[in-house]
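notes to self, project folder thing:

trying the whole complex as one job this time. last attempt i did each chain seperately and stitching them together was a nightmare. three parts in total, labels are on each line so i dont mix them up again. if this works i'll redo the older ones the same way
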Amino acid sequence: MGFTHRRGWLILIGGPALLSLLPMAVLLPGILESSSTWLHLRRTVLADYILGSLILLAGAGGGAFLLGTTLAWVMSRYSIPFRSFFEIALLLPHAMPVYISAFGYRGLVSYGGLLHPLFREFSGPGAAIFVMTFGFYTYVYLACRAMLGTFGGQFIDSARAVGIGEWQLFARVALPLMRPAAFAGTVIVGIEVLNEFGALTYLGVESLTTGIFRAWFAFGDLTAAVKLSLIMLAAVALLITAERLLRGRASFAASGSGPAPVSRRKPSRSVTLILMIFLSIPILLGFILPGLQLLLWAGTGNSAAHADRLVEITVNTLLLSGFAGLAGVGAALLIGFLPLLFRRGIGRVLAEAPGLGYVVPGAIIAIGIMRITVPLDSWLNDLHFHFFNSTLGLILTGNLAILTAAYCIRYFAVAYRPIDSAYTSLGSLHIDTAAGLGRSPLYVFLRVYLPQLRQAAFFGGILFLLDVIKELPLTMILRPFNFSTLATATYALAADERLNEAAPYGLVLVAIGGGITVLFMMISSLQNYRRRKQ
Amino acid sequence: MKNSLLQVSGVEKRFSGNPSPAVKDFSLSLRRGEIYALVGESGSGKTTVLRLIAGLANPDKGRIRLNGREVFGPGVNLPCEKRRIGMVFQEAALFPNLRLIRNVAFGLRGKGAEKRSRAADYLDLVGLGKLAGRYPHELSGGQRQRAALARALAMEPDLILMDEPFSSLDIRIKKSVVEQVGEILANTEATALLVTHSIDEAFSLAKHIGVMRDGALEQEGRADELYRSPVSGYVADFLGAANILTISEFQSLIHRGLTCPDIGAEGTEDGILLRPEDILLTTREIPGTLAGRIERSNFIGDRREYIISAPPVHLRVRTPSDKIFPEGAKVRFSIKKESLSRLSTANLH
Amino acid sequence: MKYFSVLVAVTAVFLFPLVGAGQRGEKEEIVNIYTHRHYEVDEQIFSRFEKETGIQVNVVNAGADELIQRLRMEGPLSPADILVSADAGRLVRARREGLLQPVPSPVLADRIPAHLKDPDNYWFGLTKRARVIVYHKNRVQPEELSSIEALADPGWKGRILLRSSSNIYNQSLLASLIAHHGEEAARQWAEGIVANMARPPQGNDRDQMKAIAAGIADVAVVNTYYVGHMLNSGDPVEAEVGRQIGILFPNQENRGSHINISGAGVTAHAPNRENAVRLLEYLVSDSVQEIFARANYEYPVADGVPHSDLVNSWGDFREDTLALSTLGELNSAAVRIFDEAGWK
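result (full assembly):
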């Protein structure tokens, strides 16, 4: 007990945490190799890929930044009718995967679509920036709202005392206040933009990620794919560093009165109307319009025949994501305990390591995993053959548990963030206290920490679940026989030009995502309400 | 020694990034049933010593014996969970999601009913029996400290360690909580090591006191011995208000006519300790008194404190508050007979 | 302790997914297919096969490139028996990467024309289609159109649409041009086409046709079965688009229209090889070929099988009898040339 217990945590939990880096590590030797494909790509299209990614980053990142900050300000500052509706609706675009949005808009503007002939084309970087801005602004929006909700009050109120106008209030006080949160949100948008594959392929936009897919699938060249991913990862690293640098100077001296949300103002009738229109725009563009197109497609005929397949795939998706959600939250809870156990630094390193998976493209993680499972399967088969004289087949490759592990590696950071802040606020003192009472870290983890982490685990789990349901490239590569998810089915059918048939799958996907989002919002606002009553 | 419950020998601890050790060559011994207070400024190493004894940190050198077993030494490092010690921290550190009864029962083993009944007994012991079902956030600071003590006592440990347990308490209730805790410790015949920066708490609870300075034990012994005969100006100052004179200053006072016991003139490094309450003031011209002038006069509740100037020194004097001397007045002072002691003034500050 | 039972439960849950693994060791008769096609018609055909033979058909649907990569990674342990692709180029690639094995079946050799299968019996075409020129009936006369090569003429500037170079159908088309004219001429053609495009490539074959109806361009190049699907779509908009479009089989005066196949091969380490061969032979039987023809507007590979009425209405055409294996061999050259010509 005692220190061996800690060692037990280090090995049993810290070990897998480090192992999560294995799929990426396995691919690293590729840096040093070169190939003819790589040279060809470098000569011809690499610059286009990089430029493409940069343009998308600037456009969608900037768009999401502007949209997210202004929305957060309007929602925090102004008293608007149907507030709760907007609270929830503004998050719905998060449930609509960007690739589905792209299909939807293409349908809307093509011959016979609702927006035709007002708009006739939907393709290229402009279109991509459009769907990504309205698909990803939620990251910036949520971060800024949280910031304003906590700190807004003090700063805004003291600025108002000076007597400046609303625009100045926004530009000179609110915006700088939101900046660190907005930057953090924009970095996430940037990562999502760099990782996006389905929408860009469909819209004919070239970026590093589409290049990675092309190198791997079309050319079959792993080396080129790995080198492109490294460039992409370098871009992500730059983004994150830039954000840290920009954030480093900003710190908050909260005054003694404690956290307070911004005080609300009720504007005039005409301004209220304008604001309501403004708020409706992202909901319309990010959710309603594409959703409408999906409904129209689904309504045309052939969907009825596919009812059982739809049900089967929906059940598959729910089971898999549910299972993955439990695994992801479980991993985050266990691994998140390490920094409290090992204060010197190794705990924090081990806990942050799996988070790296978030910035790596899903396809690369999948390839890395297959690079590990296939030889392992081979070895297992040899072993089995040696003892039982028959083959076992593929056990690990194409296995749902491995796919689940892949999701955990990819989205660990999503579940980990809320759990980590909860752990930080709980502190490690309880571990010492329990030790003084003769109890092991495991005991205090189960009896004291876990019960207090329920809410954080719930939040983390919901966010994790949402991302898993929408996930495309990883699932496409690692899934087992006869197994599709709503995301893969939608994409496959749509990419195969069968949008009418794709629509029902897309609708169910969006409905589930939207439903979960709404539920989540309602539960968290219920908790806020209860807390305020105390 | 057979009766020694805790024996710490030659313990040293260095933290990376610090040139000087946090604890150097520290030795301590505690007898069963004894309550010992380790006092010092923040950074003196007292909390580190506590954590080393508890097993929350490992010494670089030295040995620790607890109740006849070596818990730390060459080849031995018993983890905290196995050392049979009870701890009370500054913030009580009760588990916020558990009711008091479950908090107290946390470390107990056995069947649920047995644990609960024992926990209830200890809650009664600290006077919180009726609040067994409450959650920590529903209690006052003092109640929480008592609950933490109950939790530690319920383990029936060999040794109780307390790290500044009263520092976060409101000053109004601190005194009563300290008294209650003293009573509880006495009733249970517990052996305890208290770490605090407050000498008053130390006086209240402990008979033995150790003064720590820069990682080393400056002096230890019975409270009254330390008060009367500190070995250095630092200890003297820590234990209470003090007048510290150099030998030459003292000699000059004697030359001018002050009557006092002969201390002896050796050792230029030494100083003379004179406690403020040992100086008597009078207006009458009594032989053996010396003239001085009241520089300042302060009312401190049950006494008055004066600063008098009597070249070459300034002296701090405390008298019962009914005797009033106005500022600026001329006064004569003398020293109580057996009230002087020598001490080393090396590193006074 | 109750924690122990929780641990057991959790372990059991985690082991459950392994239950489905190890499909090689099963006792029932099965055949495992990796296919890019997932038409309803395929599922019907597989069900019929299952009923008639008692062999269960397991299907993995994914993009063809994905499937090939997966086969590569899985190696000798792969459970796949058959690889189906909607393009000959990929089958050639699969063979080149050692993923297929030869099937000396007299049935297949007999019923499939030589240029529609691998010369060494590594893969076999199952259905055929042509890549044709479509045009807006109101804005273009069929007499203005003749060959694929002619579309690069400056006269068509701003009036044509082709989809992305990443699409395998276009890659095979370019490969056929390389085979017939050499790389230099092919590159010039590609550059000419890029100069004539009404917009940068986007969308799929149906999108090109919709764009023509929308007036963005007048002419596009698509696969024949998509035209069929458009005309018979449940979506009235698509049907309307189909009606506005005429189709022309290019290169009828010289080598014939570029064709391609949907085909299949038996994988190199197929665990159920005999079942796989049986299924392939089943797929070239008259009844199945007819189903393909009717339901999917494809051309059967076997002779004497009736076409669908719509396909009949397009008439007969001369097809380019270039061995399709060539398409695959020239695929990487085609991709390279696309990149060099700036065809996105």
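what i see at first glance: Chain C touches chain A through 69 residues (CB under 8 Å).
need to look closer tmrw
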